[in-house]
Amino acid sequence: MADRDPETIKRDIDQAREQLAVTVDTLAERANPSRLADDAKAAAVRFVTKPAVAVSLAGVGALALILVVRRIRQR
Fold it and tell me: CA-based, 20 to 30 A from 64: which of 7, 18, 45, 57?
């Protein structure tokens, strides 16, 4: 191991500490529950608003409505 002066070692430690702090901050932001919930909500909205999905959901809703009306009439 090469001899290094204390100032170089201190600079290296400070730089590593700063990089670690940035990494921890990034991980904390990624793991934030409200951010995860917002991302999941946005993904669900993007999925549901696709034309094929919207038409399928409308069809399922219409079928459910028809079944409910038929059941009410049979009483």
Answer: 45
